[in-house]
Design goal:
The chain is of the alpha+beta class. The chain has 3 domains: 1-100; 184-277, no CATH class; 279-368, no CATH class. 18% of the residues lie in helices and 18% in strands. The protein has helices at residues 128-134, 160-169, 176-183, 203-210, 257-261, 265-268, 272-276, 309-317, 347-350, 387-396; strands at 9-12, 29-36, 46-51, 66-69, 72-77, 88-93, 96-98, 115-117, 143-145, 186-188, 195-197, 240-242, 249-251, 280-282, 289-291, 326-328, 335-337, 359-361, 368-370. The protein starts with 8 loop residues before the first strand and ends with a helix. The model has no long low-confidence stretch (mean pLDDT 84).
């Protein structure tokens, strides 16, 4: 039941009077003036509300803008989508709500004396929310920001939907496949051959996709504890970046890590789909232009350092002392010219983490931990100290 108090700010929860002189529609604001409440009744018979700025006056009313609001009974079916719905629900309530907070949508077209605005909203909220909420007052001195907020929420650019609709109406060609890829990057599973979205792959397998290597989806992968996980929950607030190839704003996971780590990435980066459309590459060693099939699949993600299969095979046949000027990536086992990074990893693999000596990531809880290992110690531990006892007990049972 709505708590009542004389002078309480309220808004109408439904249309009350559509006449031209009154226009008491949903969202109209006023204050509780008084009410009629019969003894032993559960609710008031009538609540009188004085509406803001009203000049009309009802017959018998003591002052202008005073209007009676009566309880309303509403009925709906909980199973309305069935052919024969039977679960009926009925509720009786005053069509009033406290007017001490509102949404940006509900405040459109209103001028408020002051506002306390919360800009820390869900990432799915339209970016125009901030403009609508902050412009309800006449001066910047009349608005206060409730709490800090992330800048990226309001620097995501114009919404893509209206821009694509205008292109379609103008008769321009729209790459809908690229648009769907921007919303949810996808890849084909090596086993089932089905094209699935990012959330259908484990984080480790999707890293293989980003490096243009084959990957296995969660449905085809090994089960954990006898249970199959078909999808994983993606973290909130995923970063979006502009692709310089297809011009779409895509999730960061749609780009190879090498594209994000290259020099002047802001101006050069391209998503994996755009890179895979290239049919030829130039070998950085023999400087020959060859079909992309003559390169390792991962070379498409870093065309400036691509090494063809023939040059890589020539280096592999040489003894280690004859491989001066080359390094082998310790993760993907591919050859690259140059001294390489200090940890001997390519751009696709080196940017996955710090790879700091003595630091590890627990394969069970995912937490970071460090533990010094002396010379001649046991094999490297894959679980953090907290998870090891649990794993030992599970094995014994």
């Amino acid at each position: 039941m709505l708590p009542l108090a004389v002078g309480m700010r309220v808004v109408l929860a439904d249309h009350l009077d559509r006449s031209e002189d009154k226009l008491l529609l949903r969202g109209s604001a006023g204050r509780v003036h008084s009410w009629v409440w019969e003894e032993n009744d559960l609710r008031p018979t009538c609540v009188y509300v004085k509406f803001d700025g009203a000049t009309w006056q009802l017959d018998g009313a003591p002052e202008p803008g005073l209007y009676p609001v009566h309880p309303v009974r509403k009925v709906w079916k909980l199973d309305a989508k069935r052919k024969k719905p039977v679960l009926k629900i009925a509720r009786t309530q005053l069509p009033l709500a406290p007017a001490y907070a509102t949404t940006a949508h509900g405040s459109q077209g209103k001028t408020l004396p002051a506002a306390l605005v919360d800009f820390n909203v869900d990432k799915r909220t339209d970016v125009t929310f901030g403009t609508v909420a902050a412009s309800r007052v006449r001066s910047r001195e009349d608005v206060l920001i409730l709490r800090p907020f992330e800048r990226w929420l309001y620097t995501r650019g114009a919404p893509e939907g209206p821009a694509l609709l205008l292109k379609q109406l103008r008769g321009e060609e729209v790459d809908w496949e690229a648009f769907r890829e921007a919303k949810a990057p996808s890849a084909a599973c090596e086993k089932c051959k089905d094209v699935k979205t990012l959330d259908c792959f484990s984080d480790r397998q999707w890293e293989r996709v980003r490096a243009n290597r084959s990957a296995i989806c969660l449905a085809c992968g090994p089960s954990k504890g006898g249970q199959k996980t078909l999808k994983r929950k993606l973290p909130s607030g995923l970063t979006r970046l502009d692709c310089r190839g297809c011009k779409f704003r895509k999730l960061e996971d749609a780009f190879p890590r090498a594209q994000l780590q290259q020099d002047d990435s802001e101006a050069k980066r391209r998503c994996l789909k755009c890179l895979k459309k290239v049919g030829i590459l130039e070998c950085s060693v023999c400087e020959s232009t060859k079909q992309i099939s003559e390169f390792s699949s991962a070379m498409a993600t870093m065309p400036w350092a691509a090494v063809c299969a023939d040059c890589a095979a020539d280096v592999r046949r040489q003894p280690k002392w004859g491989r001066a000027g080359w390094f082998t990536c310790r993760t993907c086992d591919l050859f690259f010219p140059g001294a390489g990074a200090a940890d001997q990893r390519c751009l696709n693999c080196a940017s996955r983490g710090s790879w700091a000596k003595g630091k590890s990531t627990c394969r069970k809880c995912g937490g970071a931990w460090s533990e010094p290992r002396g010379q001649g110690s046991d094999k490297r531990q894959r679980l953090c100290p907290k998870c090891r006892p649990k794993a030992s007990r599970a094995k014994r049972s």
